[in-house]
Amino acid sequence: MEPIQWSRWMSVGIDDLDEDHRVLIAIVNKLSDDANRHDPAVIEAILDELIAYTRHHFAAEEACMMRSNYPTFTAHKALHDALTRQVEAYRDGFVANRDATTGEEVFDFCAEWLGRHILKEDTRFGEYAGNGAALVSANMAG
């Protein structure tokens, strides 16, 4: 199973957010390892790690959007909330019936979930931030 490869098409142009996206990809890519995909306890731990880091990332991204007066912030936050619930429900379903879901299916779900959000939603914010992206990134720490 091939891991997800970062590409410039995934970049939102804000260094802190791009780094978070790389970390999220690295977490999902742990499922590209054969041994990890065949160990339900490891799959569950990876899903838990993904959920925890996703919460961290979404909070940082939302703060950045608010500082930028992103016009579709409310809709984007609602999407974040729905995505978090979706991956939590997926994890809960996996835990409830580990034998029904393969590691490959979990990898495919996570890759699709993450890729769709970064490529379709987060890149829109990157386009909006445009020339102000460096300022937005610099303000994320403060």
Q: Can you offer a commentary on this structure?
A:
This protein has 142 residues and is mainly α. The chain has a single domain (12-140), classed as Up-down Bundle (Four Helix Bundle (Hemerythrin (Met), subunit A)), CATH 1.20.120. It is built from six helices and no strands. Helix 1 packs antiparallel against helix 3. The longest helix is centred in the middle third of the chain and has 28 residues, at 40-67. It starts with 14 loop residues before the first helix and ends with a helix. 23% of the residues are buried. Residues 133-138 have low confidence and may be disordered.
> Which strand-content bin applies to the residues?
under 5%
Order of helices and strands: HHHHHH
Low-confidence stretches are: 133-138
Share in helix? over 70%
By CATH, the superfamily comes out as: Hemerythrin-like
* Total count of strands: 0
Largest sheet: none
- Which overall shape is indicated by the principal axes computed on the Cα atoms? globular
Averaged pLDDT: 88
Identify the CATH class: Mainly Alpha
CATH third-level topology: Four Helix Bundle (Hemerythrin (Met), subunit A)
- Count of helical stretches: 6
| Rg, Å, rounded | 16 Å
